[in-house]
Amino acid sequence: MLQFFKAYKNFAIALLIISIVIISIFYNILKPKKVLPIYQPSMVTAELVDSTIQHQKKYHKIADFSLINQNGKTVTQKDYANKIYVADFFFTTCPTICIAMTDHMIQIQKEILDDDDVMLLSHTVTPEIDSVAQLKKYALEKGVDDRKWNLVTGDKKEIYKLARKSYLSCFR
Fold first, then answer.
1. pTM for the full model?
2. What is the rounded distance in angstroms from the CA atom of residue 92 to the CA atom of residue 151?
3. Is 153 in contact with 135 (CB distance < 8 Å)?
4. Which CATH architecture has domain 41-166?
5. Handedness of CA 109, 62, 58, 171 (dihedral sign)
6. What confidence tens digit (pLDDT) does each residue in 65-112 have?
7. Residue 71 to residues 7, 48, 140, 147: CA-CA distances in angstroms?
8. Helix, strand, coil share (%) of the chain residues, nearest 5
């Protein structure tokens, strides 16, 4: 019996290797890909969501917008079409949390500088103070790269509506 196994030793090794390769191929094909979650209003704390969209369970999208960036250029959702972008809300005279948020955005900017698919968008919550000139000054101080990062201002009602109904953010 031992002679039988010795005769087919190479065949058994080859069969084992082929089996391992086939199993690993099937495993990689059938393994589910990890995707980023898409947060819907119904998945977020109710206090953060405008009551008119609170129970929306799917197909939430960022509403159309038209705002002015630090260079006086109109920025719309079309500028961010087919892009991944990080959006935040800040104001240039903020002495607290905005400093840390801007520092984090600067770090993100460094990481994504050569990635054409990722951009940044910072909305001011005090458009009456943060004029285009003020945003430009702030952008220069912080090292904002205009190709990657827009600091935007505009109508306060539009910005606050975007925050509540699109970005599911709440501030006063």
1. 0.72
2. 10
3. yes
4. 3-Layer(aba) Sandwich (3.40)
5. positive
6. 999 999 999 999 999 999 999 999 999 999 888 889 999 999 999 999
7. 79, 31, 11, 11
8. 45, 15, 40
